[in-house]
């Protein structure tokens, strides 16, 4: 009984530690240059140095115009065209299908090239490079599962409070303020270290 109580206490302690990690939520669109800049220059380095100390949430949707056709199906008109719509949906499918490190690596792989606008090409290339199941990913992106994911991302984006003013739109622990946005966007590692991780002895924060 004593051993069981010790194990339960340890598990509860882990759960509390996990819940205390700050969450950075990025509302973005696949071909937005400012989103790409934040992802490549801020979010990816923070992931490399601090991934054990914070959580990333990605919501690929952005400034999409939504309408319904005669059959009641939702039609999405993306700011940067069909290639962006595909990038949004395939990255959403990666989040659904793969684990945390895998979907982050996949999105990062799609964002890094200078000609990142070729989303169909890089989606397949990145999946194959990372040894992810391309058939499942492609089936999701081109089928009803992908459509459902877009509806969910639309709903999450639409009901943001305060309303999204542009992308990238950054939340910390579900909250958005100018202070959080500006500091996260300009120096994410420093922001996390100073505002959320200062009581922990983290090598990346002591540089």
Largest sheet: 3 strands, mixed
Task: Enumerate how many helices there are, as a single number.
Answer: 9
As a percent range, the share of strand residues is 5-15%
The geometry reads as: globular
By oligomeric state, this entry counts as single chain
Give the helix proportion (percent range): 55-70%
Compute the separation of the termini in Å.
45 Å
Number of domains: 1
Structural class: mainly alpha
Count of individual beta strands: 5
Poorly predicted sequence stretches spanning 5 or more consecutive residues? 1-18
Radius of gyration: 19 Å
Give the strand order of the largest sheet, numbering strands 1, 2, ... along the chain.
2-1-5
Q: Could you give the order of the helices and strands?
A: HEHEEEHHHHHEHH
Average predicted local confidence, pLDDT: 92
Family: Belongs to the GILT family.
GO cellular component, one term: extracellular region
Subcellular location: Secreted
Protein name: Gamma-interferon-inducible lysosomal thiol reductase
